[in-house]
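Quick note —
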Amino acid sequence: MLWRRHGVRLAIDYVSEDVPLDTAGGIRNAAGSLRGTGAADPVVVLNCDILSGHDLSAQVDLHIKTDAAVTLHLVEVADPSRFGVVPTDSTGRVTAFLEKTPDPVTNRINAGCYVFRREVIGQIPAGRRVSVERETFPSLIEAGKLVMGYHESAYWLDVGTPQAFVRGSCDLVLGRLPAPALPGPPGPSLVLAGASVAPGASLAGGSVVGAGASVGAGATVFGSVLFSGATVGEGAVVRDSIVGRGAVVAPGAVLDDAVIGDGAFIGPGNELARGIRVWPGVRLEPTSIRFSSDV
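Predicted structure written out below.
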């Protein structure tokens, strides 16, 4: 498959796994689609659940300059106890990969973007589960191979939860992470082609209204993502939430930190909050669920 945009031409191959192969096993499984044959050729690998504004070209330059086996993007986080941490020496060389601990020795973590020497990928065992964090990287360090850390404090977000996905989407729309993928200038909201927003409706907080979606008069949508064909009725309130394709939020319903599956129906008088998830196709009749007192 060929992809062209902004003067860039990419060939895209899709590689499937018969069984899950973990982080390194998946990389090894896709190696047959790599172009080029040089043992030292740099190969960039990115986790699919991150948003990052770091300078990838600078990471690749460091990798080539130091002739590293692998170069990792590292970021600093406020609470490193939620992650495995990656200590480095004064030159930036990675000295260990440490699992989650209540007392981490550093606040720098693996940010999910790697530059490999091609030959290192070829050394990953094929056809079985292999983890880069628990097997590949520690083995390289133990063998004395150079594993470098590239630290940069640019925008970075792990979008592995619905709440983080919404935050990342809003940050893109608001311009906190400049990106050519945004189909328009940054602003308080993004309304895609074919969507309709009635007079008196309020859109803010980086909300996205997907293609063919509609927002009724007097409705409030703040910091949320409405997928294509979704409907938010008159006077409804949607905050920090996801509304799936073709789902309906009836007039007067309230969503606050909720995830509504494709094709679901949320009847009037419902109040959904605190991370609640409604499965695709589910129908909630009027006033079925409330999170606040009527007193």
